[in-house]
Amino acid sequence: MSAGLSRAVNVLKEVIDAPIASYFNSCVHCGLCAEACLFYTESGDPKYTPIHKVEPLRRVYEQEYTLLGRLMKMVGLVKPLTDEELGQWQELVYDSCTMCGRCSMVCPVGNDIVYMVRKLREGMAISGHAPDGVVAATKRTVEIGSPMGVKLPAVKAQVGHIQDDTGLEVPMDQEGAEYMVLLSSMEIINFPEYLSAITRIMKQAGKTWTLCSTAFEATNSGIQIGVSDLARVIVSRIVDGAERLKVKTVISPECGRAYTALRWEGPNLIGRPYTFKVQHILEVLDEFRAQGLLKTQGFEEERLTFHDPCQIVRRGGVIEPQRNLMRMVSKNFVEMSDPSKYNWCCGGGGGVSANEDAEEIRLIAFKRKKAQLDEVKPDKMVTACANCRIVLEEGLEHYQMDLPVVGLTEMIAEHLVESEPGSQKE
Amino acid sequence: MSEKSGLLIENLERHGVSRRTFLKYCATLASLMALPPSAGRAFAEALGKVTRPSVIWLSFQECTGCTESITRSHAPTLESLIFDSISLDYHHTLQAAAGSAAEAARQAAMKLNWGKYIVVVDGSIPMKDGGVYSTVAGISNHDMLMETAKGAAAIVSVGTCASFGGLPKAQPNPTGAVPVTDLVKDKPVVNISGCPPIPVAMTGVLAHYLAFGNLPELDKLGRPLAFFGETIHDRCYRRPFYDQGKFAKTFDDEGARKGWCLFELGCKGPVTYNACATVKWNDGTSFPIQSGHGCLGCSEPDFWDAGSFYRALSMPADPLKVAATAVEIGAAVGVAAAVANRVRKSAAKAGHETATLVDIEKERD
Amino acid sequence: MDAALFLNWVRGTGLQIAVFVFLLGTVWRLFEIYSLGRKPDLAERRHVAGASGWHTILRRSVPIPGMMQRSGMTYIAGYTFHIGLGVVVFLFAPHIKLIQGLVGLSWPALPSQFVDLVAVVTLAAMLVVLADRIMKPVKRFLSTFEDWFTWAVTFLPVLTGYFAARHLLLPYTLMFSLHILSVELLLIVLPFTKLIHVFTVWPSRWFNGDASARKGVPI
Questions:
Q1: Interface membership of B335 toward A (CB under 8 Å)
Q2: DSSP sequence for A48-109
Q3: A17/C39 Cβ within 8 A
Q4: What residue numbers bound the domain in which C174 lies?
Q5: pLDDT digits (tens, 9 = 90+) for A244-267
Q6: How high is the ipTM of this complex?
Q7: Are C30 and B334 a contacting pair at CB < 8 A?
Q8: Domain spans of chain A, in order of start
Q9: Which of A52, A380, B204, B216 has its CA 20 to 30 A from that of C80?
C-alpha cells in the first residue's frame, strides 16, 4: 500500500463515526438520492448517484469497523481499497458534487450523504486525488491568504477606491468594533460593489465595524478540498484576528462556503467554541431592517427571482432574511419552483467552479437551473453568493440566456435612502 | 365361532335386514367413499356373495378404545351387524375363550384360512428390551405380529397407535413403541388412524376389501383418502367464524357460547385429516368442535408431541426461552466489537499526521 | 420425517435457533454500529421551531416537493408493500396470537379476508418493486446480490403464508412449515443485511435531522 493510500485509509478511519455507520447500514439502494442530484438528473448517468460517490468510504467502514467485514477481508471475500480506485472516484467526489445537500434531504432512510462526501474528501485529498484546480486554490489560500491570490495591497487598493467614491471611511484593524467584516476573493476582484455597499449600510445603521489586515479572506478552500488540517489553518486566521480585535460579531460575506466553514465547521476545527458570534451579511441586514436601522426607498421595477445558495440556505440555515430583504425593495418578487431550502444548486460550489475537469459536467448540470428560470421567466436574478454569481453568469452565457445576475447586498445598497441624489432624509 | 357359515346376506336376513335396506346401505357406503354409483351395485353383489371371512384381531399396547368405538352403539347398526357377520376368530376383549384356548383358536384360524385372513391390529408394538413391555401368552407383540402376518391377506392398523405409534410412542417413548408399518413391509397395510377412529372408516374399508379384494385409494400415510382426504378445518361448520376472525378465547365466554371458532383454544383442525366434521360421531350426533372443544389432531402422527392441545397452532413452543441468552451473547459480541472499533479509531487518531500542502499535491500522475 | 414432525421442529427448535440468531445478531450489530460515537458539535446551535432530529424521523416519510413526479413508483410501490407487510404481520389474527403468546401484548385483528386481500396487494407491490429495480438504470446500477437476496427473503414469507392460509400448492401442514421456515430465514439474515434498516432508519433520520436542525433548517 502506498504511503498516500495508507494515510487516506487512516484518515477515513478517523472520521467514520456512528452516524456514518448508521447511514451505510440503512441504505437500501432505492436510488432516490440520484433523483435529487442535478448532476444525475441532467446527465442521466447513474454513476453520479450520490450514495455511489461515497462507495470508497463504505468499503473502509465495512472492512475496518465491522467484524464480518474484517473477516471477509481476511479470507479475501472483499478487496481493500486501491489507489487506482480512489483515482477513479475523483471525478465523482469532486467534479460532480458541490456538496449541495439535496441528497441528504430526500433519502428515505435518513442518510446524510453530503456529510459522507465531506468526510471522504479527507481521504481523497490526502492521497493526492483532488483536482488540480482545487489543490491550487488551497495552496494559494494557505500560502498567500486567498484562493485567488489576493494580497493585502490589493485589498487596500479597493479600500482606497471606495473611500474616494463614497466619502466614507473603511476602518482597518479597529479594535473593539462591533462587527468584523470578511470578504471573499471573488468579491474583492469581481464585485467590489459589495464592500462599497457594506460601508454605506454600516454608516446608515450607525454601527462600528472594521476589516482585519491579517484576516480579510473568508473563503476556506480547505473545506472545499476537504482537508480539516488545512481548513483549520485558514479559519484560525479569522479566529485570531477576531479575538485580537475583540469584535462582537464576524460577518461572513456573500460567499456560500465561507459561511459554512466559519459558522458551522470552524469551532469544531479549532476544538473550542468561539468567543464571538458569526453572522452572514444577510442576517445582519435583516436584523438592521427589523430594528429600523435600514432605510430604503423605491422599488425595483423588474420581475425578480432569488437563487438560494446551497451553503447559506439549506446547509447554512439563513432562509428568511433574504426574503424579507427582497420584499423591502421589490413588489415583483417571485419564487422559483423548489425555492428556499429545496433550491437546486448552481452547480459550481464545493470546488467545482475551480476545477477545469468539471466544466463539461457543470454546464450539463446547469440545465436544471435553466429549467427553473424558463419556468419563472424573471427579468433579473438576485443571489447572495459571489461564486454562485459567477457560475450562474457562465451558465447563462453558455445557454445564451439574457438575464442579469445581481447580489442582494448591493441591490439593497442601491435603494439606501442616502444614496438617492437630492433627497436628504433622516 | 367359526361354526356359523353361510352367506353374509343370509345372515343379514336372519337379523331382519331386508335386501332393500342392504342395497340402500351399499349405495350409501359407495357414496360416502366417493365411488361411482355402479360401485354400490358391485358392493351389493360382492358383499352378498361373501362367506364370512376370518379376521384375527391382535391387540398390543392399546387402551381398547378402538374396540369400544367400533362396537359401542346406542342402537343396533348395520356396522355392528356386519361386524357380527365376519368370523372374528381372535379378539382379546370379545372372545369367549381365554388362556391357551384362545391362542389355539388363533393358530387354528390361521391354518384354516392361510393367505386369506385379515389381520386387524390395534395398539403399538414395543421394541425396547426385547419387547418385554407387552406380551400375550408369553409371546412378545413383535413376534406375534410377525408370525400372524405371514399368512395374512392384508393388515388393517386400527387407531393411531397401530398406525403411527400413538400414545405409547409419545416422548419419551419408554417402551420403544413403533407402528405396524415399521415392522410389516411385505403385506398391504392400511392405516385407519384416529384416537379412536370413526366406526364407518373401519367398516367402509373392510367392506371395500371384502367386495373388491383390494384396499381403497390411500394417502401418503396409508390412510383411506375417502375418510382422510380432507382436513377438519376445510369441512368445519365453524369455518366462517375463523375467516371472520371471531374466536372463542375461553371455554365459556361469549364467543364460546355463540359457537365461534376454537382456533385460539388450541384446535388442530387445520392440520388434521379425518372425517369427523362430515361423518361425525355416534351416528352423526356431534363431534368435538360441535361440542365446544378443539380438535386434538388425534388422527395425525405424533399428535401427543405436537404442542399443547390448548395452545393455538400459530403458537410455537417457547422460542423466547433462549432470548435472554441470545441478548447476553449478542451484547458480549457487540461490546467486543465496540471496543475493537474504539481502539481502532483511537489508533487511527493517534496515527494522524497533520496534512500539509505537500500531501495534497504529491502523487500526481 | 413426516409433515407434522417437520412442523413441530420448525415451530420449536427451528424457531428457537432463528430467534436466537436474530436477537444475538441485532444486539451485536447495533452495538457495533453506534459504538463509533459522535463528536459533540461546538458551533453555536440555532433553535428553530419544528426543526429537530425527532421531527425528521416523522417528516422524512413525506417526499419533498418534486420527488413524487421524478420517482413516483419508488414511493408508491415502496409504501404499499411496507404498509402491506405491516398489516399482514401485525393485524392478522394468528400472528397477533403468536405475539401475545410470546410477550403478552395483543390488539384487535382485522378480518382475515381483508388481510388476505392486503397480502395479494403486497405481493403485487413487491413484484413491482422488483421490476422497478431491474428496469430503472440507477437501481440496476446500485443493486448487488444482497438486494435480490433480501427481496426474496422478504417475499417468500408473504407468498408462503398466503399459500398456506389458502391451502394452495402443497398440503397445508407442509406449506405452513415452509412459511414458518421462510420467516426463520428472514430473522436470521436480518441483522447482517440491509434489512437491519428496520432498526437503523430511526437513528439515521435523527442524526441527519439533528445536524440540519442545529443549523436551523427543518428537513
A1: no
A2: G-HHHHTHHHHHHHHHHH-HHHHHHHHTTSSPPP-HHHHHHHHIIIIIT-----HHHHH-TT
A3: yes
A4: 3-34+70-194
A5: 999 999 999 998 889 999 999 999
A6: 0.95
A7: yes
A8: 3-130, 135-290, 304-418
A9: A52
